[in-house]
Amino acid sequence: MEFSKDYIESFIRPRNELLLEMEQYAKEHHVPIMQLPAMDVLNQMLRIQQPSSILEIGTAIGYSAMRMADALPNCKIVTIERDSERVNLAKEFIARSEATNRITVIEGDALEVDVESVESTFDAVFIDAAKGQYMRFFEKYSTLVPSGGIIYIDNMYMHGLSGLDLKDVPRRKRTMIRNLNTFADWIMTHPDYESTFFPVGDGLLICLKR
Predict the structure, then answer these.
(1) Which of 51, 54, 95, 179 could crosslink 123 through cysteines, CB 3.0-4.6 Å?
(2) Where on this chain does Mg(2+) bind (predicted)?
């Protein structure tokens, strides 16, 4: 049974003017931000978890970092982005928010930067960057998550491509989808994590560290 879009959207929480401005900017400039239903699910899971620190891989314009900070007023967030134009824009948006003192933006490749100079551990990690690199992101940053911590991963469905046979995937995206599928198989059988896939937005994976 499928629910109508209007019915689903009736449950979406209202956002302030700054967030609405960011949503409009993302739409007009084709910047990928987390879909609203999935963002609400993520924030509700975070409210239940109550992490004191979050590491985000993939800042874009700072939208999801600000949404998480809004949901968790006592949480500090470190977010990494390699695109300098988006870093500057994210900093501008964040500076206009009430969470400006709780969000740290690091410019650089998430596979190369040293976040331990900022925080040595994180209660939660949110991965929403290069889809073909999810395995490498996970392997690098899961070591900073203690037992009982959670790693949240967006875009696991990848607009339906993850559910297709590779021959039906556009050639330019096959390597990415192959890597994403390999990661999904790997994490779902990983002995150190209890992982659950939520079919919301573009697919949200939640991995609880044992």
Answers:
(1) 51
(2) 128, 154-155
Structure-derived torsion over alpha carbons of residues 139, 143, 147, 149, reported in degrees to the nearest 10: -70
Task: Please tell me whether 38 is known to bind a ligand.
Answer: no
| Integer Cα distance of 154 and 131 in angstroms | 9
Tell me if 109 is assigned to a ligand binding site.
yes
**Residue ranges of domains in the chain, CATH in brackets:** 5-209 (3.40.50.150)
Q: Supply the pLDDT for residue 9.
A: 81
**114 is annotated as contributing to ligand binding:** no
Q: Is the pLDDT of residue 95 over 90?
A: yes
Q: Is 34 annotated as a binding residue?
A: yes
Q: What's the CA gap between 38 and 20, in Å, rounded? A: 16
The enclosing H or E element of 85 equals: helix 84-95
Q: Which of 175, 87, 192 is nearest to 138 (CA)?
A: 192
Largest CA distance in the chain: 48
Q: Say what the pLDDT of residue 169 is.
A: 82
